[in-house]
Amino acid sequence: xxxxxxxxxxxxxxxxxxxxxxxxxxxxxxxxxxxxxxxxxxxxxxxxxxxxxxxxxxxxxxxxxxxxxxxxxxxxxxxxxxxxxxxxxxxxxxxxxxxxxxxxxxxxxxxxxxxx
Amino acid sequence: xxxxxxxxxxxxxxxxxxxxxxxxxxxxxxxxxxxxxxxxxxxxxxxxxxxxxxxxxxxxxxxxxxxxxxxxxxxxxxxxxxxxxxxxxxxxxxxxxxxxxxxxxxxxx
Lengths: 116, 109
Description:
Chain A is mainly beta. Chain A is 0% helix and 47% strand. In chain A, strands 2, 4, 5, 6, 9, 10 and 11 form a seven-stranded mixed sheet that branches. Chain A has a four-stranded antiparallel sheet with strand order 1-3-8-7, with no helix packed on it.
């Protein structure tokens, strides 16, 4: 099993450009999450999904959109990139939430995005 | 006030030492608590879940104090390989988790 994979690993954008980050998991997990991590700060939740076809806003959703058309994939879109979106983006998935032994979040390796 | 607060460190300790980290959280309704480990430029990985008053896994012991709303992590007999950032994680009550900024540990030979 590959676990959670993310593409691309690195990307440099110019202000105003758009891009999509892809997250894929092969563990049949219901829950998927997108976080961003900035220096000196904890991971902050951007959007999450509790199942195929559903999405919900997290702590810092502005400037991002997401889609979960297939259970195994969770896409994060930046429609018009801004320098403030320079960050490391992590995707995670879990089988459940709040259920002992089933709510571990497994993370992908991250995408390092720089917006100039 | 941040939802989850941790001392950023760094904690510099010699091999074999015992070190403890504390974390406080603000949401009294939180039910799930975790410690994750993050190596430099890597993804976070679950170290321990904390579901009751405390649990132990080898050299690691996690404790939860609901009344005072804090969680602790104790590492005994520190190894060089324990050097990492330790993230305190708490559920928000809205099917999402809040991560602390992390406490950096450097174990020295």
